[in-house]
């Protein structure tokens, strides 16, 4: 099946620094990728839709200047958490939409971010 | 906003037992999806349902898309320890196939 990777899998950073998370579709092209955030024992909450070659679409309440998204190629989207604070500590998961055949979203393994 | 209802939050069963999980909504959706998430991992698609009334199987898993298009259930037969995890239902909402997830059900299987 289709594979989506995320890098890094875990990151610990100091408050005030920026962290970049990569999401790659390994064996298919994805014009659309999605970024989710998941707090412990909670469901996945969509943060933004990443569109290849254009600006991301953010969900209500998500600060676009804080969570910068770049989708420069058909296989790579990046999420940068700028000036991270402890409350940004969370599990960030991306998904990529495979548009060939029956449309399906495949999820990455997630990135655990801890801001000290 | 749109809400998917999954309850109870946790289920505890004995190895070998069958278990059924329900997902309901007050709105109509044309696609219902079931995902499983293991601790520290991303969700993995189990079954996708595209047609009202559709019954689809994937090994020991069976899922049905409700006739009213407002609900779906997932059944796991002859449970095994590796079935432990969080089971989410999800629906396609809006443009670009955005997904909305239910709160999930944590399944525990006693050996």
N-to-C span of chain B: 40 Å
Q: Give the radius of gyration of chain A.
A: 13 Å
Provide the helix percentage of chain B. Answer: under 10%
- Rounded to the nearest angstrom, the distance between the terminal CA atoms of chain A is 37 Å
Oligomer state equals heterodimer
Radius of gyration of chain B equals 13 Å
Largest sheet of chain A: 7 strands, mixed
Instruction: Average the pLDDT over all residues of chain B and give the rounded result.
Output: 93
Number of strands of chain B: 11
The major pleated sheet of chain B works out as: 6 strands, mixed
Task: Give a written overview of the molecule.
The complex is a heterodimer of chains A (116) and B (111). Helix content of chain A is 0%, strand content 53%. Chain A has 116 residues and is mostly beta strands. In chain A, strands 2, 4, 5, 6, 9, 10 and 11 form a seven-stranded mixed sheet that branches. Chain A starts with a strand and ends with a strand. Chain B has 111 residues and is mostly beta strands. Chain B contains no helices and eleven strands. In chain B, strand 9 (85-93) and strand 10 form a beta hairpin. The relative contact order of chain B is 0.33. The model of chain B has no long low-confidence stretch (mean pLDDT 93). The A-B interface holds A 4, 6, 32, 34, 42-44, 46, 49, 51, 57, 91, 93, 95, 97, 102-110, 112 and B 35, 40-45, 48, 50, 88, 96-104.
């Amino acid at each position: 099946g289709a594979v989506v990777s995320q890098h890094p899998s875990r990151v610990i950073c100091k408050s005030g620094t920026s962290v970049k998370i990569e999401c790659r579709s390994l064996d298919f092209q994805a014009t659309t990728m999605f970024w989710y955030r998941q707090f412990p024992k909670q469901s996945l909450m969509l943060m933004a839709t990443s569109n290849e070659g254009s600006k991301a679409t953010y969900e209500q309440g998500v600060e676009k200047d804080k969570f910068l998204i770049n989708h420069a190629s058909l296989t790579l989207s990046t999420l940068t958490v700028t000036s991270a604070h402890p409350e940004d500590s969370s599990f960030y998961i991306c998904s990529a939409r495979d548009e060939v055949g029956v449309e399906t979203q495949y999820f990455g393994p997630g990135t655990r971010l801890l801001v000290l | 906003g749109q809400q998917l209802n999954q309850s109870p939050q946790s289920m505890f069963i004995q190895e070998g037992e069958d278990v059924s999980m329900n997902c309901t909504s007050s709105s109509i959706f044309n696609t219902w999806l079931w995902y499983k998430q293991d601790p520290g991992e991303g969700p993995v698609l189990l079954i996708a349902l595209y047609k009202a009334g559709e019954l689809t199987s994937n090994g020991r898993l069976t899922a049905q898309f409700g006739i009213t298009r407002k609900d779906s259930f997932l059944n796991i037969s002859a449970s095994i320890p590796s079935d432990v995890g969080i089971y989410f239902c999800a629906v396609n909402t809006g443009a670009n196939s955005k997904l909305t997830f239910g709160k999930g059900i944590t399944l525990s299987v006693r050996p």
